[in-house]
Design a protein that fits this description.
Acyl-CoA_DS; binds zinc ion; two-stranded antiparallel sheet; FA_desaturase_dom; mainly alpha; 320 residues
Length: 320
């Protein structure tokens, strides 16, 4: 027997849930959460910095530092300019040589093969901070415990998720390009190149096994680890804290202190507000080395149809 429809509605009615808030601890930042976050970010990084003087002259040389900077810049921009702004969002068009080089440089960052990276990232934009986002820090909801768990998930935990983003659904354009499919499938080979090239250079330039070993450690392992954490911080930190000068339907924020190491990607609020823009640091003084290099490549004629953000478009995206 079916109950009268009026009573059924009353029985199943649930109170409306409190709105999800975009800042830690609700409208105001909770100092305990801020402090815990700073510790989690600060301590491992401080340990790494503290290791430098200990190692100096005894396993770390100027040559190692130079190799770290060069390898970090090549592989980091392979992610930011290549995997992200070009392959995921189509911020510009590139000739075949640049297209291939960006695919290789991005693979060498050791963040997964090209096609997988792009598929995951497009899914992130489609569902940003909602159900279906592969790496939202808000996965477990707001509140200290949920957010702590969520930050871990968005930073690294999601990488261990056995469920993979559907490549045919999210990256059909890349799968149609045989060169790109080949580069993406060669991922393990480019990882080996990424780790062994600095070792070979360090060994040849210093003409010693010791030089090869220390270059392998610093410009290979430490550099990959550093770039991993910077890239993952865009998924975790830039979706949990930061200023929101632009309108976006998620929790993305602009985090100034990550601008240089992230090569402009930490202006993440603008990026979610205007995904195809080739420049993320659009406001005065916002450093964005990726945009600068795209500009140089445009002047050289290597890339074209760059989607530079114009003033009117930026103003239209501003939060009220
Ligand atoms: Zn993006
Ligand atoms: Zn994002």
């Amino acid at each position: 027997m079916t109950p009268p429809s009026g009573t059924a509605v009353l029985e199943t009615e649930t109170p409306t849930p409190a709105p999800i808030r975009g800042t830690l601890g609700g409208e105001r930042k909770n100092w305990a959460e801020q402090f815990a976050l700073a510790l989690f970010i600060g301590i491992p990084f401080a340990a790494l910095v503290a290791a430098v003087p200990f190692a100096w002259g005894w396993g770390l040389s100027w040559l190692d530092v130079a190799l770290v900077v060069v390898m970090y810049a090549i592989t980091g921009h392979g992610i930011t300019i290549g995997f992200h702004r070009y392959f995921t969002h189509g911020s510009f068009k590139a000739n075949r040589g640049v297209r291939v080089a960006l695919g290789i440089a991005g693979n060498m960052a050791v963040q997964g093969p090209l096609v997988r990276w792009v598929a995951d990232h497009r899914k992130h934009h489609k569902f940003s901070d909602q159900d279906g986002d592969p790496h939202s820090p808000w996965k477990y909801g707001p509140g200290v415990r949920s957010l702590a768990k969520g930050l871990w998930w968005s930073h690294m935990g999601w990488l261990f998720d056995v469920e993979q983003t559907d490549q045919h659904k999210y990256a059909p354009d890349l799968l149609k390009d045989r060169d790109l499919v080949r580069i993406s499938r060669q991922f393990p080979f480019w990882v080996a190149v990424s780790l062994l090239a600095p070792a070979a250079l360090g060994g040849l330039i210093s003409w010693s096994w010791q030089g090869a070993l220390s270059a392998f450690f610093w410009a290979g392992l430490v550099r990959v680890g550093l770039l991993h954490h910077v890239t993952w911080s865009i998924n975790s930190i830039c979706h949990a804290v930061g200023k929101q000068p632009f309108r976006s339907r998620d929790k993305s924020g602009n985090v100034w202190w990550l601008a240089i190491p992230s090569m402009g990607e930490s202006w993440h609020n603008l990026h979610h507000a205007d995904q195809t823009a080739a420049r993320h640091g659009v406001l005065r003084g916002q450093l964005d080395s990726s945009a600068r290099i795209i500009r140089w490549m445009e002047k050289l004629g290597w890339v074209r149809d760059v989607r530079w953000p114009d003033r009117a478009r930026i103003d239209a995206k501003r939060a009220a």
